[in-house]
Amino acid sequence: MKKASLTDVKGQQDNFAFERALYRRGYSAVAGCDEAGRGPLAGPVVAACVVLPQDCDHSLFVDSKILSHQRRVELADHLRTLHAAVGIGIESAEQIDQINILQASLLAMKRAVLNIEPVLPDFVLVDGKFTAPVPIAQEPLIKGESKSGSIAAASIVAKVERDRIMQSCHLSFPAYRFDKNKGYPTRDHRLAIRDYGICPIHRKTFKGVREYVE
């Protein structure tokens, strides 16, 4: 798996500095990749991969965790307006239980990279300290959402898609209020598990759920 050092742009405040440096090196499609949903007790982990147009306003795309739900949705829609290349990868709770959350997250990232349209990236900036299992040049960036507009855009897409999935899951399993907690271990969610047991989208290997597996 290829990897390139980006130490020459470390410390830059410009959230497109990493991408710009890579384009200067000759890469033609630099993507950001991130995931949402590693910590919940229920639901899938969702990854996204995004190639931002070089001439767009990259400063719009910041860490999804500091944005409101409405703003995340607006920015996800804006990516379509920009004709940005976007790919999504999803791994179910069942798959998470089978291979563990880290491996499922990396597999979701792989799917997101390979599913991207209309162009496959030739370099991927990945949030965190691991790279995706794809034979494409990559660089992991810890706290990448605050350093790379492309990773931030991917974090937004992943969060919006996962929220949409959990909203749908709420319709099937309303007792757990997935529309509100999105599967995270809130007090109300834990009480619902205690009172009603678990449902098919709970992660049975996670603490807080496995105690209720018969």
**Element order: H for helix, E for strand:** HEEHEHHEEHHH
CATH fold type: Nucleotidyltransferase, domain 5
Low-pLDDT sequence parts:
1-5, 7-11
Structural class: alpha/beta
Shape: elongated
Helices, by number, come to 7
- What portion of residues belong to β-strands? 5-15%
- The CATH architecture would be 2-Layer Sandwich
Strand adjacency order, main sheet: 3-2-1-4-5
Which CATH class? Answer: Alpha Beta
Rg value? 18 Å
- Give the full name of the CATH homologous superfamily: Ribonuclease H-like superfamily/Ribonuclease H
N- to C-terminal separation? 42 Å
Return the average pLDDT rounded to an integer: 94
Count of discrete domains: 1
Which labels suit this protein?
Nucleotidyltransferase, domain 5; disordered N terminus; 5-stranded mixed beta sheet; elongated; alpha/beta; 214 residues
